[in-house]
Design goal:
By secondary structure, the chain is α/β, with parallel strands linked by helices. It has two domains: 232 residues, Alpha-Beta Barrel (TIM Barrel), CATH 3.20.20.60; 38 residues, no CATH class. The chain is elongated, with a radius of gyration of 23 Å. It binds 3-methyl-2-oxobutanoic acid. The site of 3-methyl-2-oxobutanoic acid has 12 residues, from strand 6.
């Protein structure tokens, strides 16, 4: 249980039919909880733009944002493999810049691998990164960095042509050397087919139960956010209500001088305070 998870673990888990567990995390405290709970791999996703920074997409997320959050996560992890997302346009301009940015994710951020979005169009960059010794996770289906091109957050690969394109992209990424592939928001039957055909593990998010592993955004799993969660999310807790309740109780106790009580206060000898009072400092 304590050995650090690596890409070898991913390969072995697929061979053994053992589901790979993944979650996102973006800070020390959540990373610590996730690691202690025994999750195999943590993705510091560019979804941090939405859930940590309050943007309405992942487009504004920068390399510096990623490094800042990765460092915090890595400080909280012993066993889980940490994978860092390459943000929007950080792997599109040149091979040199892509390798430098991926290198930062490993060297400065402390991750063991990077993730990037896209199909055949990113094959040359996947090859360049793997040739530089950087493990790469792919990401197909609903790819949030292309949200303006996709026209919204909707299920991908439902029609024949789109499903075929996804299969060709998956095959191309595998050939290019990705060690695993995230499949986001695609029909379960298509994800099952791809999972059977590929030798690398698939990690599903909104892609049905037959993927080799699953990932969720930790804020969704814990029910921390307001508003309607996507259909593929299962909330395992409703922490938003609990957190608001706890904060409201604190507020009321402060207003009514209930907090801090004697248990949260420090004492001193009465003679000492009496002497201080007698000296009339004020
Ligand atoms: O950024 C992210 O959190 C992701 C996962 C949802 C797969 O890409």
């Amino acid at each position: 249980m304590n050995k650090q998870v690596t890409t070898t673990y991913f390969r072995q888990a697929k061979k053994e039919g053992k589901p790979i567990t993944m979650l996102t995390a973006y800070d020390y405290a959540m990373a610590r909880l996730t690691d202690v709970a025994g999750i195999d791999a943590i993705l510091v996703g560019d979804s941090l733009g939405n859930v940590m920074l309050g943007y309405d997409s992942t487009i504004p997320v920068t390399m510096d944002d990623m490094i800042h959050h990765l460092k915090a996560v890595c400080r909280g992890v012993n066993r889980a493999m940490v994978i860092g997302d390459l943000p929007f346009l950080s792997y599109h301009c040149s091979f040199e810049q892509s390798i430098k940015n991926a290198g930062r994710i490993l060297q400065e951020g402390g991750a063991q691998a990077v993730k990037l979005e896209g199909g055949q169009e990113v094959v040359p960059v996947v090859q360049a990164l793997t040739a530089a010794g950087i493990p790469v996770m792919g990401h197909l289906g609903l790819t949030p960095q292309s949200i303006y091109q996709l026209g919204g957050y909707k299920v991908q690969g439902k029609e024949e042509a789109a499903a075929k394109k996804l299969a060709c992209d998956a095959q191309a990424l595998q050939k290019a050397g990705v060690f695993a592939l995230v499949l986001e928001c695609i029909p379960a039957m298509l994800a099952r087919y791809l999972t059977e055909k590929l030798t690398i593990p698939t990690i599903g998010i909104g892609a049905g139960v037959d993927c080799d592993g699953q990932i969720l955004v930790i804020h969704d799993l814990l029910g921390l956010l307001e508003g309607q969660a996507p259909k593929f999310v299962k909330q395992y807790a409703k922490l938003r209500e609990e957190v608001i309740q706890a904060i409201q109780t604190y507020r009321a106790e402060v207003q009514n001088r209930i907090f801090p009580g004697p248990e949260q206060s420090y004492t001193m000898a009465k003679e000492v305070i009496d002497k201080i009072k007698a000296e009339e400092f004020f």
